[in-house]
Amino acid sequence: MAERLRLGVIGLGRAFTLMLPTFASHPRISLVAATDPRADAVSRFAAEFGAAGYETAASLCNDPSVQAVYVASPHQFHVEHVALAAAAGKHVLVEKPMALTLQECEQMIEATAKSGVHLLVGHSHSYDLPYLHARTVIRSGRFGRLRMVNALNFTDFLFRPRRPEELDTKAGGGVVFSQAAHQVDVVRLLATSKAASIRAFVGRWDSSRPTEGAYNAQIEFEDGSFASLTYSGYAHFDSDEFMDWWGELGLRKQANSYGRTRRTLMSAKSAAEETELKNKRAYGPSGRDAFQLEGVSAHNHFGLIVASCDCADLRPTPSGVEVYADFERFTETLPAPTVPRAEVVDELCDAVLLGRPPLHSGEWGMATVEACLGILTSAEHGCAIALRHQV
To answer: CA–CA separation, 222 vs 174, rounded Å?
Structure first.
């Protein structure tokens, strides 16, 4: 049996809940420790996985049985928790967005480099196999140079239950920090040169959710190619219609689900009640009941993506890559996933156990944060923003 990576988890919230089926079923991972402010979630984790439960992140990082730490705490705590893990000599997988400022990104990169440990940023959808395959096709030159990428996603993100800080941009709330990180990552993955500048507009259209709920951004790359990114989280049109009703997480959408997110949110009469609704979607006393592996039969995705090359358009889908060439259209089908988001674990384990440099490094994550901050700055000042920390 291949060596298993012993993983500790900081934060048992929604991000961890989505990654749990991956960690629990992947043959290269052992869950050995966790910490979270919710004691009942930690107790459940300890019982379910025969693992250690800790009251603090520092205690978890000092556990000698932990080889690597998955930092899935709220955005504003990432820099602190990565520093704790690095100081204890632990490798780190930190959730996107990596941090809320470039200075924090630099601190995280320096801390892990000083300790000689790997830093990976994810899980973003740029780990998804169809996007990785499209990247390989583009870089092979089979269809000439990449010229343009169009990315579009319409979801219900802003009307899912949120903690108060998730509706405060200064605290890392809104769709730019949480969702543009996915879209920017995917577009940068497909691109064949570094991003040079970004021009953007944002939408704040509902006073009850006082943060960015939508954006449109244009990225210019150094080789003259360009990309358009559009996102709306206002819970009206659902762009999964373009994906044959496969949802973002590889599950079939239910025909009667329209409007469910807004109706559920209406049941919360206060911020505390909304936070409780969010906690019900996270790991807790009911364990993995919040998100089951069963039924996942397609690859994850992040909406409609079309990459235009000289001689073909490429469209990643939940089952592979659609190729629209000069004289024929065909599908390059990919095997269905047996473990969702397995690519995240594979990249982490390859880095830690085999010493392979990760694609989604700290420098990669910092470049994405710079682009997200560029969206906000461009929208505020009405001009293009030069990007200087790209890889």
So the answer is: 29
The answer to whether 84 and 73 are in contact (CB under 8 A) is no
| The Cα angle at residue 228 between residues 261 and 316, in degrees rounded to 5 | 70
Q: In what order do the strands lie in the sheet with 68-71?
A: 52-54, 29-35, 5-10, 68-71, 91-94, 119-121
pTM, two decimals, is 0.96
Distance CA 72, CA 104 (A): 16
What is the β-pairing status of strands 29-35 and 146-154? unpaired
The percent of residues above 90 in pLDDT, for the chain, comes to 92
For the segment 102-132, what is each residue's pLDDT rounded down to a tens digit? 999 999 999 999 999 999 999 999 999 999 9
In the structure, what pLDDT confidence band is assigned to residue 344 with cuts at 50, 70 and 90? very high
Q: Do 212 and 202 form a contact (C-beta atoms < 8 A)?
A: yes
